[in-house]
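Job type: complex structure
Entries:
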Amino acid sequence: MQFNITAKSKTTSARTGIIETCHGRIETPVFMPVGTLATVKSLTPEDLAECGAQIILGNTYHLYLRPGCEVIEKFSGLHKFMNWNQPILTDSGGFQIFSLARLSNITEQGYSFQSHIDGSTHMLTPEKAVEIQTCLNSDIMMCLDQCIAYPAEKDEAEKAIELTARWAGRCKQAWMKTTRENALFGIVQGGMFKKLREISAESIAELDFPGYAIGGLSVGEPKNLMLEMADITLPLLPYEAPKYIMGVGTPEDLVELVSLGADMFDCVMPTRNARNGQLFTSHGSINICNARYRAETGPADPNCGCYTCRNYSSAYLRHLYMTRELLAYRLNTIHNIHYYLTLMKDIRSAVKNDTFHEFKKDFYQKRQN
Amino acid sequence: MQFNITAKSKTTSARTGIIETCHGRIETPVFMPVGTLATVKSLTPEDLAECGAQIILGNTYHLYLRPGCEVIEKFSGLHKFMNWNQPILTDSGGFQIFSLARLSNITEQGYSFQSHIDGSTHMLTPEKAVEIQTCLNSDIMMCLDQCIAYPAEKDEAEKAIELTARWAGRCKQAWMKTTRENALFGIVQGGMFKKLREISAESIAELDFPGYAIGGLSVGEPKNLMLEMADITLPLLPYEAPKYIMGVGTPEDLVELVSLGADMFDCVMPTRNARNGQLFTSHGSINICNARYRAETGPADPNCGCYTCRNYSSAYLRHLYMTRELLAYRLNTIHNIHYYLTLMKDIRSAVKNDTFHEFKKDFYQKRQN
C-alpha cells in the first residue's frame, strides 16, 4: 500500500491524497460504507459503484462467525465472495466483541468470548485477528485493540492503551510474516484523556505502520470532546501516513475531522438511518414518514443526482416506507450513501481548489435554511 | 387494446400472440410478476426489465388503501408513481376483500368491508372498481367478481356466478363511459362445477369484453381439478381474445395451461418463494438454506443467465439468506422472476417453431433428473 498527499488546504489541516492498494486506488478524504456481513445492507456492488464508493468496510467478528473463514477461503477472500472488486478494509473484531459478544473476557493473550448467535466459545488473539483478515484478503487490516466504554476511569484507560500497544506489536510481528500485500493499520486508544491519547499515539506510531486509526471515539461522549481528542491525536501521528477516524460520524463530523487532518471514515449512520426512513440532504436530514411527503411529486432532494432522486418522488418513497416494502430500504440507502460520498467528493474538490474554507461556510449555511 | 394471434401449436391448443396497449406490446403467453403495492417486492423497474418483464400486476385493494387514489392521481396513474413505463394489469380488489379484509359483507350493490390495516370501512361496487382502476391508469382492468372458497356448495357457486355476471354488466357499462383506452377483462367463476363454469363463460362472453379471465382456480383444489376446469372453460371463451388464468401457478401449471390455450398468468410464487429461500431451476426447485450450498462456489443454476447466477455463488446466496440480509430477497427474487419469464419466452419460441410437444417432453425430463 502507498499513500501520496496530493493537495493541502492553506487555512486548515485538510488534505487530499491517494491510497494505492492491490484492488485499486482510493482518493482521500474517503468515506467507507459499512458492509458488515459481506454486503452493504440492501445494495449490490453495482449500486455502490454508482453511488461513487471507492472502498467498503467489512466486520471481521461477523464474517468470522458467518459464513466463516473456511467458506471465504474458497473464494480467496471477500472480494470474490461478495463480487466487489474494489478495495476493502476490515476491522479487527475487537469492537464487536466488546459491544456484541456474550461473556467476553480479556487477558494478555486476547479476547475469549461467546458468539452472540449460538453461544459457541472463541478466542481472538492479535495473531488470530491478522490471520483472519489475511484470509478475508482485506486491502487494509486493523490491529486488535482494547476498546473501553465511555465514561471510563483513567486507570482503566491507561491499562487499555498499554495492552493495545503490546497487541499492536504482536499484530505487526504476525503481519511481517505475511506477504504484506494487505496493509496493516495501528489504532490509537486513550479514552477521553489527552495525556493517554498522546502516549498511545506515540507508542503506536513507534511501531511504524502503513497507516493509523483513532479508535474509541463516538462512544457516547459529547461532540466537542470527540473533536478535541481527534484534534490532539491527529498531529501526533506521522504526517505522511493516512489517518482514519473509526466509526464517525455525521456529515458535520466529517467536515470538521477533515479540517483537522483526517483522511478516512466509516459509519453505519447513512445505511442504518436509511432503513429508519431518515434521508440526508444538503439542508439537513428529513424523515420520509412525514405526512408532508404523502402526495409530494418531487424528489426527496431536488439538488441530488442519485438514482433514487432521479427516478422516484418523495410520495413514492414514503409509500414504500409506510408499507415496509423491501425496496424502501434500498432506495433510501442509495440516497444516503450517495449523499455521504458526494459530500466527500465535494470536500476533495474544495481542498484541491483551496476553497475548503468557503466550502465549509456554504455547508453550514445551507443547513441553517 | 388489440390482440393478434401470431402462431398456433399443431399438437395442442397453445398459441402465441401480441397484445398492444397504450404502454407497449406484450408477447403472449406471458407471465406477469405481482407488484401488489406498486412494487414487485425488492425489485426496481430496471431489475424487472433485465429479467424480461413485459407487464406487471398491481392489486387494486392494496393500492386503494395505501397510498390511495388521491396520491396516485397526482402522478396520472401507477406507471409514473412507481417509475414503470410498460403495461400494468390490475385486479378488481374482490379477491383481496374475500381473503384479507375484515367483516366483509356482500350485497347486490357490492362489497362493504373493513380495511385489514386500520379497520376503516369502505364500499367497493363494480362501478367503483372501474373508477379506481381508471385512476390507476391500468392498461388492463378487471371486472369486480364474487370469489368463493373451496370447497363450496353448488348453490352458493351458482349464486356467485349470477352476481358476477350482473356485476360484469355494470362494470362494462361504467367502462363504456370512459375513454376505453384502458381495456376491461371479464372474469369467469363457477367453482369446481363444470356446468356452472359453462354458464358463467357464456354469460361473460356475451358481454363482449376485450379479454377474459378465469378466476377462482388455485384456491386449494387438487391440481387435476384445476386443469379440468381450465380445460372446459377456455374453449368456451372467444378464440380471438386473450385468456388469462388468475393466480396460477407452478412452472408445470403454466406449461399445462398454455397447452390448453391460456395466454396470461400471474402468481406470487416466484416472488414469495424467493423470499423463503426457494429457487426455481430447470431441474426443479432448490432450497438455498441447504447445508450442501455452504461452500458451493458455483451459481444456484449453472444453466441460468440471470444477474444473480452470473455474479454470485450459491455459498454467497446461502450466507445472505442465513443472515437475513436484505440483498438475499432481491437476488433470489431476480433469479425466480428471470426463471419464470425465461420459461415463458422458451414456450413462445417452441410454439412459434411448432416444437412445443418436444419442449414439454424436455421440460418434464429435466425435472426428473
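Summary: The interface with chain B takes residues 37-39, 41-44, 66-67, 70-71, 74-75, 81-83, 294-295, 297, 311-313, 315-316, 318-320, 322-323, 325-327, 329-331 of chain A (CB under 8 Å). The first strand of chain A starts at residue 2 and ends at 8.
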